[in-house]
Amino acid sequence: MVTPGGARPKLSRELIVTKARAIADASGLDALTLRELAHALGTGQASLYRHIADRRELLGLLVDDVALEFPTADPGLAPRERLLKVWLDLHAFLSAHEWVAKVIAEGEYISRNAAPFAQRQLDSLTGAGLGTEDAMRAYRTLYNLLLGFLLNKHPMGHHLEAVPPSTEDEEFRWAVSRFLDCLLPGEPPQGQ
Q: pLDDT digits over 139-160, tens only?
């Protein structure tokens, strides 16, 4: 990676994470090796070790980086609509970064940057009338539903003629909407 003047930009953790994310987005997580990353940065693999300990640390940094971009929804929306919007937006965001769901699902990396997202969801759920324990269970259910949709590419049942074809986005919208309908029965859906 060389700038127009011919000089390489100074290697930094931020630059390493940015390039690693670009590789993972373009080619998948399996393509993200430290050797490939060093090559893409125009440096030697040993130079990376001045900024990161290993691939494990790099993946943790990538999860932290992505979590900063988790969506927020308009607090002026009714709780059910706010929840629906943010989970649909998160599904769209993570669909654009396919490797993230796998890393999250493996459970090895806990991002401190994801905590504000989780807290906003818990606040929305308690604001909709759920108790703290039910809000936590609902949050975990929504998160597992999201990961299930992102990770499961098996077309089970889609070959049936009686089932009209739909996109993954439509299927996810349907699932989250129905879950919220059951969870928040006192709040009628708007525009559904």
A: 999 999 999 999 987 655 555 5
